[in-house]
């Protein structure tokens, strides 16, 4: 099931569409072995965490957005393929992984700016 979510950053908001909430098993694989046209993925956690992620077996760049329980972005990073440790600077409650593709172009520009990908 695809969903959408409003994320707030610097007193602005953006809607992230085609968002798929992951099960506990889905949290293990994330974007691994998926194509660039995959759904945007939402990882929900029961409490604040600062667990690292990796991009092993993700063959393209993606944007990781970490948010608090109110969907305020606390950090974001462009993640390159086969990076071993990627961490948020602050604890978070949710993580969104967005493949860098044409359908996410406006979201990428909103967070990282034009031409910074």
Key features of this structure:
single chain; 117 residues; mainly beta; Jelly Rolls; 6 strands
Topology:
Layout: E1 3-9, E2 12-21, H1 24-29, E3 40-49, E4 62-67, E5 73-79, E6 92-99, H2 105-112
Account of the 3D structure:
The protein is globular and about 35 Å long. By secondary structure, the chain is mostly beta strands. It has one domain: Jelly Rolls (Sandwich), CATH 2.60.120. The protein is built from two helices and six strands, in the order E-E-H-E-E-E-E-H. The longest helix has 8 residues, at about 105-110.
| CATH-defined superfamily | Protein of unknown function DUF192
Fold-level CATH name: Jelly Rolls
Report helical residue fraction: 10-25%
For the CA atoms, what is the radius of gyration? 13 Å
| CATH architectural group | Sandwich
Short description:
With 117 residues, the chain is mostly beta strands. The protein is built from 2 helices and 6 strands, in the order ββαββββα. It has a single domain (3-112), classed as Jelly Rolls (Sandwich), CATH 2.60.120.
